[in-house]
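Sample log: Pectinesterase inhibitor domain-containing protein.
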Amino acid sequence: MNRSLSLLSFFSSILHVFLVLNFYGGFTVKGDIVNNICKNQSLVDPDLNYDFCVSSLEANPVSKTSDIFGLAEISMELCSRNATYIHIYIEGILKDGKEGPRARICLEDCMEFYSTAVEEVQEAQEAFNGKDYYNALIHVSNAGIEADTCKNGFTEAGIDFSLLKKQDYNFYQLTSISIDLLAKIRDSKI
């Protein structure tokens, strides 16, 4: 029984390598690279929304002629802009002053978390530009953790997270795209 599981695991690994090479052979993909990458990523990561991935990357016209490295740069820029936007959005909510004291504390914490997320993505971009793909991946992952910590603060306080639900979802999707792209680049040993 263990031998059949080992063989199944081996063939599954071979299939995975074939699929990766098929989609990313040489890191250039003939045809529509954004659709190919988003399709593959959404198959591997079921939490990644294919349509969101495509529309986000295609918002930058350069994406249509980019390779995987160019798409990673685009995705990190999207993360940076989105985290900055969320920070400003939270400031606006706090200025309105309509939230209760517990929600205010959570929002203030979230402002700090998203400020740190912006710094993490900037460090990821610097690492990426220096061809340090491992640390670029770590920094984008850390940015995602900062956003998740914001969400957890609301949950732990028993406060409805609806104020930031859409923003959190978008940031999660963007960091997932970056993480997936950076992991592929890091694993390519280029």
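Observation: The chain is about 80% helix and 0% strand.
Observation: Residues 75 and 178 are 5 Å apart (CA to CA).
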